[in-house]
Amino acid sequence: IIIPAYKSDDTIGSCIESVKRLDYPRKEIIVINDSRDRTPEICRKLRVRCIQNRKRLGKPGALNEGIKHSRGEILFLIDADTIASRDVIKKCIAWFHDKKTAAVMPGYRTSNRKGFAKLVSIENSITLALVRMNLFFGSMLGYRGCGVLMRKSVVKKLGGFPSTLMEDNDFSARIIKAGYRIRFEPSTSVMTREPENLRELGKQKMRWGKGALFTFLRHHDLYMKSPQFLLYFFPYIFLGIVVSLTMAYNVFLILLHPSLSGILSLITMIVLLTLAAFVHILVLLGNERSPASILLFILLYTPVVCFFYTRGILSGIKAKREKKPELDLSDW
User: Fold this and answer.
1) What sign results for the dihedral spanned by CA atoms 5, 9, 14, 19?
2) Least confident of 145-149, 198-202, 230-234, 294-298
3) What is the reported pLDDT for 7?
4) Model-level pTM?
5) Mean pLDDT of 190-207
6) Which neighbouring-strand residues pair with 192?
7) Among 51, 65, 251, 258, which is least packed by CB within 10 angstroms?
8) Phi first, then psi: what are they for 85, rounded to 5°?
9) Residues of the chain with CATH 3.90.550.10
10) Spatial CB neighbours of 180, under 8 Å, sequence gap ≥ 6
């Protein structure tokens, strides 16, 4: 069990206690601390091995360092702000009887429900609904790195985790390209902390937007051939572009020739798009969420996230143009 930690002394204790309670007989727990905080002291109290990095490596480097010191073949990689269900290893490990299985992702839920985290939890529910559709294709296209089981020999064969902003998505693509599979185990889960305020949310989504750009540019050959990507992600991207261009055009016309009919047509389009998104999410989630929370998600959360994702993508384009490294630790 490898736990990469960065400024995590407020959550690392709960994470360690959860993995110590796991219903599995033989466990080795290694914490890799990538900052100067109370994490080593907490690990000593809980009698868990902690490796203190001399210099900051970032999450990919911390994972590689932990793997270097680990003894087992099956790795459970879990973030320091995440809590594992007691049966997570027992439920997921059966997938590894198939030699082509490189990684198994359990479900994930939001542990905190304050502020924006309440709306992030809806996004997570939508993502998991789409993940379940991946089961029809035998392998998922990716996994979320907050909690995943991994075959160590495959990680080593593929050269370890790359120094990228989204090491989980990037490594997922390398797994698929190498002919291995990523599985999903819906009967168990981990609970992870999500951003509660606008500043935290903005920094996370900007990193993800920038990282998604670099990952897509590296692995576009895989994504454009993948039925998962084409069926479930391309329509959203296409719709987003169409909506943005249409709205920009309508706003331009209204500014050029202000008229009541033009304003009404713009309002009508926004209402129809909101209704379409509402029905889509309602079909995906069923009775899991209230209609009011879904509307709040569409009208407040989605525009905010799109704004930060776009900023992240633009910063990625700028970094690419200026030939700057993708993994900039100041993004955290």
Assistant:
1) positive
2) 230-234
3) 95
4) 0.88
5) 96
6) 82, 110
7) 258
8) -65, 150
9) 2-194
10) 100, 101, 102, 103, 154
> Is 128 in contact with 149 (CB distance < 8 Å)?
no
CA atoms within 13 A on the CB side of 144: 19
- In angstroms, rounded to a whole number, what is the distance separating the alpha carbons of residues 142 and 171? 8
Average pLDDT over residues 288-317: 92
Can you give the length of the chain in residues?
332
AA letter at 151: R
